[in-house]
């Protein structure tokens, strides 16, 4: 088996099946294995293992940039294999690829409904141009990137304040990319509390008891006259 006969297929639908990928890629040569990965954040991706490097190269040449289930595929040769790999490593690898293929012409979208998916947002923005990447969260916010500045500006001009799934969304240029979000927090220590000195307790002298003498002086004796 030739080295490097493994193909990375990115930007797949999270509902893709192995049979769907096999139908698209089997025509280029013998496939040994297909491994689909669905990370915590879409899109999904897969590895297609060919027996021959030339078949893998044909698949990349013919399939890269084509559409599958409404998604534009990213297909390229990779040295990473589907066997024995940590899924977290695969997620980081896909994130690296997405950033590499992304652009600096990014927009932020607010006002999305809770059931809006990244695919819904991508389809909505395609009217403005080629959407390289899109993401949404559960709080009603999303981001997307375009290939050119003109496409980004067109999206802001034409699609801002338009309806997506029954909600009017607001679109702005995203200027947060590349800025460090980490902020150093200085903790101000409150000055140490001063201990309150207790005033020494005043010792009260016990009350004096007035003692009455019960002993009476003996009566004087009268001197008798002789």
From TrEMBL:
GO cellular component, one term: cytoplasm
Cellular localisation: Nucleus
A Pfam family that the UniProt record links to this protein: RRM_1
Basic and acidic residues bias: start-end ranges: 78-97, 157-177
InterPro entries referenced in this protein's UniProt entry, alphabetically: Nucleotide-bd_a/b_plait_sf, RBD_domain_sf, RRM_dom, RRT5_SRSF_SR
Keyword RNA-binding annotated: yes
Region entry Disordered, spans: 78-105, 157-226
Residue ranges of domain RRM in the record: 5-80, 105-176
Keyword field contains Repeat: yes
GO MF terms held by the record: mRNA binding
Basic residues: compositionally biased ranges: 178-211
GO biological process: mRNA processing
Alphabetically ordered keywords of this record: mRNA processing, Nucleus, Repeat, RNA-binding
PANTHER family per UniProt: RNA RECOGNITION MOTIF RRM DOMAIN CONTAINING PROTEIN (PTHR23003), SERINE_ARGININE (SR)-TYPE SHUTTLING MRNA BINDING PROTEIN NPL3 (PTHR23003:SF62)
Name of the protein this chain belongs to: RRM domain-containing protein
Species of origin: Aphanomyces invadans
